[in-house]
Amino acid sequence: MADRTYRRRLSLLLPKIERRQKLGKEAVFRADAAFAKPELYKALEERDVKYTIRLPANDHPQRNITELLTRPVGTSSPKPVARFKSFLYQAASWGPARRVVAKVAFHFGELSPRVGFIVNNLATSSRAVMRFYNKRGTLVADQLAAAAGENRRYCRRRPVRRLGRAQQISVTR
After folding, report:
1. How many domains does the chain have?
2. For residue 127, is pLDDT > 90?
3. Which of the four pLDDT bands, split at 50, 70 and 90, describes residue 93?
4. Residues 48 and 61 in one domain
């Protein structure tokens, strides 16, 4: 995603979050790797917004999970075998180190595991962070794209889900 598009979407997103907070509602942010930018982490942390954001494919965090990358010994199962690990990670462009949760999933018939990294500030287990990230909430990207005058053909509508008083804000490309 181009920086100009990213900044435009960010300028539309942050006021939405602030409006929700003024109404006394908690905003929880979830986004794909296109939004994995240190400026966004900082902006969300300054506003006390909980977030889960996928990290782009990268060899550096993978060094922290080398022990998870070997296939478990035993009989093969048609059901995927998943392992999780939480660790602090600091990219060169980040200020402070942040919590990253890794999921390594071994699927039947595949040689290599599927690996995903989620940077987050949630105070829950690694499995719960992944479960939360994989859910989908309100699609803000559709509204942001429309407001920014962008092509919306890549946006998908998703239903609103409420978590008690917190409404999820989900952004995908």
Report:
1. 2
2. yes
3. confident
4. no
**In the chain, which ranges are E strands?**
26-31, 50-54, 81-89, 98-106, 114-120, 138-139, 162-163, 166-171
Give the Cα separation of 51 and 30 in Å (integer): 6
The answer to whether residue 121 scores a pLDDT higher than 90 is yes
Please give the model's pTM, rounded to 2 decimal places. 0.74
Cβ–Cβ under 8 Å, residues 113 and 69: yes
Q: Residue 78: pLDDT band by 50, 70, 90 thresholds?
A: confident
Give the chain's end-to-end CA distance (angstroms, integer): 8
63 lies in the same domain as 126: yes
Looking at the structure, tell me whether residues 139 and 99 fall in a common domain: no
Range of the domain at 26: 1-54+135-173
- Round to whole Å and give the CA distance between 99 and 121: 6
